[in-house]
Amino acid sequence: MTQQVNAQAGSDWSRFIRKHWAAFSALVAAVILAASAAVYVFVWFTGNAQSTGLVPSSLSLWSMNSVLTFILHGIFWELFLIGIPVAIAAVVGWQWWKRLPEVEKHHRSGKGSKSSRAGGAISPLLLIAFAIKVYIDGNWNQAIASWNLDYVIGSMITILIWTVAIFAIPAVIGIVWWIRHETKKP
Questions:
Q1: Is 113 left (phi over 0), alpha (psi -120 to 50) or beta?
Q2: What angle, 0 to 180 degrees and rounded to 10, lies between the N-to-C axes of helices 122-137 and 64-78?
């Protein structure tokens, strides 16, 4: 029974791709072009960032200011040169998808599992917290190579304490509220 359903789903996809081969080919070409262009823009930006003096060419001279400046400028150029055309192409693709008959769209826009969509926000938040800690300490424009291991580990422990405080305080309030709510039930 499962093989029959999977075989039919596979044949539905095959028929859909055969019927809309031009749109499918355009999608594949657009994805390859966008990925290649994004890599090229990053390489171009990195070369220009060093030659224009936006960031030091030697990594041992980089400061948190250099890191943040590099990241923000890189994001800007990627969004400007790649993101805008990709967004326009996505709108065009969405308009094409909306014009398809409902029969053809049935069971074609499945979502991944929760585990495949989970996470990804912790690393940027830790980077932001580390940048705040470095700024508060007055080491913003100091070369990263001059930091000692004790400073970095101490900063990580401080960030861990900040994270626990941010999440633990609301959790404790919620648990206390829940316990009081449950004990008042008849």
A1: beta
A2: 140
